[in-house]
Amino acid sequence: MHIQVKELSKSFGGDYAVHGVSFDIEEGKLIGLLGPSGGGKTTILRMLAGLEQPSSGEIYFHGRRVENEPPQKRGIGFVFQNYALFKHMTVFDNIAFGLAVQKKSRKETRERVEKLLNLTGLAGLGGRYPHQLSGGQKQRVAFARAIAPEPQLLLLDEPFAAIDAKVRKELRTWLREMINRLKITTIFVTHDQEEAVEVADEIMVINKGRLEQKGTPWDIYKEPQTPFVAAFIGESNLVEDCSRLRGFEREGVAKGMIRPEFIEIFRPGEGTFVSAYEKGTVRSLFFRGTSWEVEIESGPHRLLAYRSLEQEALEVGDQVGLLIHRLYRFDEHSGVMVENASKIDPLPVYI
Ligand SMILES: Nc1ncnc2c1ncn2[C@@H]1O[C@H](COP(=O)(O)OP(=O)(O)O)[C@@H](O)[C@H]1O
Ligand SMILES: [Mg+2]
Fold it and tell me: For ligand 1, atom 3, which residue shows the shortest CA distance?
């Protein structure tokens, strides 16, 4: 189902939980709704589902305005983080619940539930009760129950939050494959950036009730539009004024963000390089399996950078040079990537 949301807002007693959010979702896409706790993610889902009335704004499903339609008319499946299975019903009856509401025949119901049990890897478990299942199995039952009535939109609110890390990783991959196969438009809420990056076709970053950015995981990593997005996705160093960094003097006063991988570290005597480098002192070193993560104090900044295991090892207290190859420079509404101007400087300098 194609979803369109225009200037959607919700206030509770004067405080905005969601504020002027607009987006479009193409049919069949898996969208990750990512952001810190309290940002308004659940409220957005609840408005889409019809469980919460918007304060203002419009919601369209396939071009049809739905704010005044009751939840059961909207064709939505919902999975919550705490399973919310019916405790006194078997797995079979839990999955069949929505079909009973639709008054499907007994034969049709049996066939559909059996198919879903197979699809979700729960074959043979239809007679069990929720307390006889693991967390991962319960969440798959919740998923099967949500898709049983063939919804056109599936809403998953932190579905794996209560599940331990290893099983959560398996469930992510499982979910991705399942959605690909079923081709249901899906919105997946998470506060875990790794989860969103791994699962979603596109990510919407939500903060303080506002949509900060929407794009593919790669777009959002590569071109964050706000300092918040930059800090939320991947590792980053935020600086108050990028024009104080050598090679970026022409940028004017503006906030900047430097990913660790944009910084090259030089020890004294190591190679030649262009005239614009920052000087710094190594403050800490962490072995990260495939590289060293190095924290460097440089003027007012603490910068995180990486150093290859192939290069000579650093020690805490070492004086080093830093070449900041590029950074993101932010104005009020967008971020742009800027290359270090001095990289075209012909004068080599040694330290
Ligand atoms: N029914 C409610 N009444 C009052 N405030 C609410 C209600 N539901 C949510 N909020 C508030 O709205 C904000 C967003 O909440 P929520 O949508 O649950 O965020 P998230 O799901 O991103 O953690 C929070 O400040 C929360 O306290
Ligand atoms: Mg929530």
Answer: 12
Q: Average model confidence (pLDDT) for the chain?
A: 90
pLDDT at 83: 62
Nearest atom, ligand 1, residue 36 CA = 22
Enumerate residues with CB within 5 Å of ligand 2 (an ion): 42
In 3-state terms, what secondary structure has residue 32?
strand
Ranges of residues in the chain whose predicted pLDDT is under 50: 351
Question: What does the pLDDT read at residue 270?
Answer: 75
- Between CA 53 and CA 323 the distance in angstroms is 52
Ramachandran bin of 208, using left for φ above 0, alpha for ψ from -120 to 50, beta for the remaining angles: left
Q: Please give the number of the atom of ligand 1 that sits closest to the Cα of 43.
A: 17
Tokens of 332: 């009020």
Distance between CA atoms of residues 100 and 108, nearest Å = 10
For the entire predicted model, the pTM comes to: 0.82
Q: Beta strand pairing status for 153-157 and 76-79?
A: parallel
Reading the block at residue 77, the tokens are 């499946």
Query: pLDDT at position 136, please?
Result: 87
Q: Which tokens hold the place of 132?
A: 């006889």
Centre of ligand 2 to C-alpha 75, Å, is: 21
Of 329, 303, 321, the C-alpha closest to 250 is 329
Tell whether ligand 1 has an atom less than 6 A from the beta carbon of residue 214: no
DSSP state of 349: B
Q: How far apart are CA 163 and CA 100, in angstroms?
A: 29
Q: Determine whether the shortest distance from the Cβ of 168 to ligand 1 is under 6 A.
A: no
